[in-house]
Amino acid sequence: MRILVLGAGALGGYFGARLIEGGAEVAFLVREGRAAQLAARGLVVESPFGGFARPVAALMAAEPGWDAVLLSCKAYDLDAAIAAIRPAVDERTAILPVLNGLGHVERLARAFGADRVLGGLAKIQATLAPDGTVKHLNDWRYITFGEASGTMTPRVEALRAAFDAAPGVVAEAVPDVMARMWEKLVHLGTSAVATVLMRANVGEIARAPGGIALMQSLLERNMAIAAHHGHPVRDGFEAEYRRIFSDTGSQYATSMLRDLEAGGRIESDQILGFLLEAARRAGVPDALHEAAFVSAKAYEQRREAGRLPR
Ligand SMILES: NC(=O)C1=CN([C@@H]2O[C@H](COP(=O)(O)OP(=O)(O)OC[C@H]3O[C@@H](n4cnc5c(N)ncnc54)[C@H](OP(=O)(O)O)[C@@H]3O)[C@@H](O)[C@H]2O)C=CC1
Ligand SMILES: CC(C)(CO)C(=O)C(=O)O
Questions:
Q1: CB within 6 Å of ligand 2 — which residues?
Q2: 274 alpha carbon, closest ligand
Q3: Is 57:28 a contact under the CB 8 Å cutoff?
Q4: Same domain, 126 and 184
Q5: Alpha carbons 165 and 186: distance in angstroms, whole number
Q6: CA of 92 to the centre of ligand 2 (A)
Q7: Which of 1, 107, 236, 300 yields a CA-CA distance of 20 to 30 A from 77?
Q8: What sequence ranges are listed for the domain Ketopantoate reductase N-terminal (predicted)?
């Protein structure tokens, strides 16, 4: 299978490397800075599931002929990413986005036609270090995807086969991918709101007085939001995440907290703003969501004005 990976960041680098190990033909569509790093060092991944350090095919302009495009940019880069992959997308190409949030699916469908676009999500903790190393931080290594229609098509089966052949990945092709994306938003919405508000990881919040109750209350509110929008979480989800959000020994931090702490850009509108709006439409108490969104927007102003601590 020929797969073009847009971006060789944390997710693109991790899953792209694994697909190569699984035997897929992979190239990375990258910009100048990342192209220079890849040329100098190859793609380097550090992971509890085995390292990867090899030269990889890197393109700075897309060409046609791909079975799939794995879209792994941040949501604030979506417009530029759409322009970049446009030459790569033809009638045989499936676009598999792994961005957090939900708004990008409609945006991609408008740009390429709904038939070209799959739903997708990743549950992993990874980061791109300044030297270009992709660091995989825990044992989460899940990618989930499917047709928005729920049909199990040959292209979804082919992607599942490519990921199944890859080490260090647990892939699931599902008939309810939009519900899974909402479920992911319940998870991320809980951890991102809490970690952004508290500027701390899940274990640190859980050890603070009232911290567990705060995360459990956020989880309940996010489940209510998803249910209101037609996507209640599956059986077993609540118990699993109640455990995660009461673990006082947890080291779990969100990618948004890592980006904030590194002084980077964050997906404030696409994740926190989207969830706040969804909470309001659902009539769910939204004071915590609003505080996280305000905090993120205030951070962005300080960042843009160069007033972040060095
Ligand atoms: N990191 C994590 O643990 C998780 C992240 N996610 C989600 O996955 C998505 C990707 O996150 P993540 O991998 O962390 O992000 P990164 O910032 O690590 O990687 C994104 C990469 O996309 C590249 N990119 C953006 N636009 C273009 C373009 N037009 N052409 C070529 N390359 C481009 C960037 O390149 P450049 O260097 O040139 O800017 C960057 O290297 C986000 O929506 C995030 O919320 C989901 C689950 C977990
Ligand atoms: C998987 C999860 C929820 C991990 O926090 C994530 O998507 C992120 O950090 O961006």
A1: 100, 123, 125, 187-188, 191, 254-255
A2: 1
A3: yes
A4: no
A5: 30
A6: 30
A7: 1
A8: 3-149
**C-alpha of residue 73 to centroid of ligand 1, in Å:** 4
Whether 16 and 51 map to the same domain: the answer is: yes
The model's pTM = 0.98
Q: How many domains are there within the chain?
A: 2
Please tell me whether the interface predicted TM-score (ipTM) of this complex is above 0.90: yes
Domain of 208? Answer: 179-304
For the CA of 16, the nearest ligand:
1
Question: Which residue in the block uniquely carries the two structure tokens 């979480």?
Answer: 233
Q: Is 104 in the pocket of ligand 1 (CB under 6 A)?
A: no
Q: Which atom of ligand 2 is nearest to the CA of 253?
A: 5
Nearest to 256 by CA among 247, 248, 264: 264
Residue 280 pLDDT grade (very low, low, confident, very high; cuts 50, 70, 90): very high
Closest CA to 3 of 70, 60, 92: 70
Assign 54 to helix, strand or coil. strand
Residues 6 or more apart whose CB falls under 8 angstroms from that of 216 comprise 242, 245, 246
Query: Is 75 close to ligand 1, i.e. is its CB under 6 Å away?
Result: yes
Distance (Å) from CA 34 to ligand 1 centroid: 11
| pLDDT, tens digit, 9 for 90 and up, residues 121-175 | 999 999 999 999 999 999 999 999 999 999 999 999 999 999 999 999 999 999 9
If we measure between CA atoms, which residue out of 113, 108, 275, 95 comes closest to residue 182? 275
